[in-house]
Amino acid sequence: MRSLRFILITTLACLVSAAAFGAGFSIFEQGAKATGMSGAFAATADDPSAIFYNPAGIAQQRQLSLLVGGTAINFSNEFRGDPNSIFTAGATGQYNRHTFVPPNAYVVVPIGSNLSFGVGVFSAFGLRTDWQDPWVGRFISRDADLKTLSVNPVLAWQTSNGKFAIGGGVEYRRAKVVLNQNLALPFLNPFTNRITDIANARLASDWDSSNGWNIGFLFKPTPRWRIGAAYRAPMDIDLHGAADFTAISTGNAQLDALVAPSIPVDQPINTTIPFPAITNIGVATTVGHNWTAEFDIVNMTWSRFKALPINFETTPARNIVRPQNWDDSNSYRLGLNKTVSSNWDVRLGALYDENPQPIESVSPLLPDSDRIGVNFGAGFHAGPFVVDAAAFLLHFKERDTNGHNLDGFNGTYKTDATLWSLNVGYRF
Fold first, then answer.
1. pTM here?
2. Residue 347 and residue 41: Cα distance in Å, rounded?
3. In principle, which of 199, 225, 268, 295 could form an S-S bond with 183, CB 3.0–4.6 Å?
């Protein structure tokens, strides 16, 4: 049945596109100090999380240092169906509440007077969505869970006068995805005249991996000014998984028997997906003895995601290439740090983050849009101990897909997020 085949293809396309793409699921909050400054940290780069933001920064850190923590992320999303759509008119939906906590950990080891080695472990991409039942969009996504983990050893060197530093390293990234959704009868149920569920589809990948690299520069032309730039290379990950299908009774034995042959067989699937390159450039300055301000621009090359090939290993006749046509995107970040006393700092930040996703691709799995955010943070340091905390409030611009969605699932999405970051550090 052609309609059922289309639903399955849409499902798999959503699975891997959400797994690898969407600025809403790239996680730039990899250190609480940086998060308190809205991620404007490429030029400051003065704690071990510089391994993520700008590896050149660890060259200026001349003590053995350990930093561990994470960011608790909560999303809320509301959907209102297009009143002119036969599929979504009058429909509403919202997420079940979930908190996922991408971890981070860093260690920096000075070597001699000008060289430092460091290792970072972090999760640069992540996703957790779960729509409340009953949900009209269950044929596209009921729930999804993406986990990634990167290990990033780096080496950095600075000149004897400390005005210039360069650092770089390699990154080993792993990813795993699970998606659940329902399949629909490809015609109205003749007994109820309604859309009817006939199967649950569970698509799950193994932990698959790829390798990349990052490099950064730090320049201090004067004691008051700092310029930083960093680049994280793109990656391609060969993602392998399994598609499992479980029949759902329609309530009519004859109809169950009729549709049973059309439910796809369990089988392996695979695809190759590209992660974007990330470039961040920042300028920081000190004002008096107490204030530091930094402005960064972060670019992500989402335009690498032009199309998505999906391969069915048991039934290759189902193979398809699904167009995506994403755009590169920029985020603009401003951060402030004020030294209140010898033990305390307070921080503020704001950002504007562009959305790379064309409106045709917006779906219940990936309802992305432009967003603005504000950040608040504080740092406490006493002797060798450091504690940093930050709060991040993120508001997504309301996005209306009416008449544009490729899958015909039209409506308006409203999304907000709150993030809480905490890191604890020790300098030996």
1. 0.90
2. 12
3. 199
The pair phi, psi for residue 59, each rounded to 5°, is: -65, -30
Using CA atoms, how far apart are residues 419 and 28, in angstroms rounded to an integer? Answer: 11
Please report the pLDDT score of residue 23 as a whole number: 62
Amino acid at 48: P
Q: Which residue has the higher pLDDT, 16 or 239?
A: 239
Residues with Cβ within 8 Å of 367's Cβ and at least 6 positions away in sequence, in order, are 24, 77, 79, 399, 413, 415
Nearest Cα residue to 39 out of 242, 271, 281, 361: 281
Which helix (H) or strand (E) covers residue 137, if one does?
none
| Residue type present at position 93 | G
In 3D space, the residue among 12, 4, 20, 123 whose CA is nearest the CA of residue 356 turns out to be 20
Binning pLDDT at 50, 70 and 90, where does residue 315 land? confident
What is the amino acid identity at position 96?
N
What single-letter DSSP state applies at residue 265? P
The Cα 305–Cα 308 span in angstroms is 7
Structure tokens at 372: 């603005």
- The β-bridge relationship of strands 307-312 and 267-275 is antiparallel
Secondary structure of residue 36 in the 3-state scheme: helix
**17 contacts 305 by C-beta, under 8 angstroms:** yes
Q: How far apart are CA 55 and CA 172, in angstroms?
A: 15
Q: How far apart are CA 244 and CA 2, in angstroms?
A: 19
Q: CB atoms < 10 A from the CB of 265, how many?
A: 10
Specify whether the CB–CB gap between 331 and 356 falls below 8 A: no
**Tokens standing for 40?**
């404007």
All domains in the chain, ordered by first residue = 2-59+94-342 (2.40.160.60)
What is the distance between the alpha carbons of residues 361 and 173, in angstroms, rounded to a whole number?
Answer: 26
Q: Where is 77: in which H helix or E strand?
A: strand 65-81
How would you classify residue 161: left for phi > 0, otherwise alpha for psi between -120 and 50, otherwise beta? alpha
How far is Cα 52 from Cα 229, in angstroms, rounded to an integer?
Answer: 12
Task: Give φ, ψ of 402 to 5 degrees.
Answer: -50, 120
Residue-wise pLDDT tens digits, 366-423:
788 899 999 999 999 999 999 999 999 999 999 888 878 777 888 999 989 999 999 9
96-138: pLDDT as tens digits: 888 889 999 999 999 988 999 999 999 998 878 888 888 888 8
Joined together, the tokens standing for residue 407 give 């899958």
Instruction: Name the 3-class secondary structure at 32.
Output: helix
Confidence of residue 144 (pLDDT cuts 50, 70, 90): confident
What is the sign, positive or negative, of the torsion defined by CA atoms of 22, 23, 24, 26? positive
CB atoms within 10 A of CB 212: 19
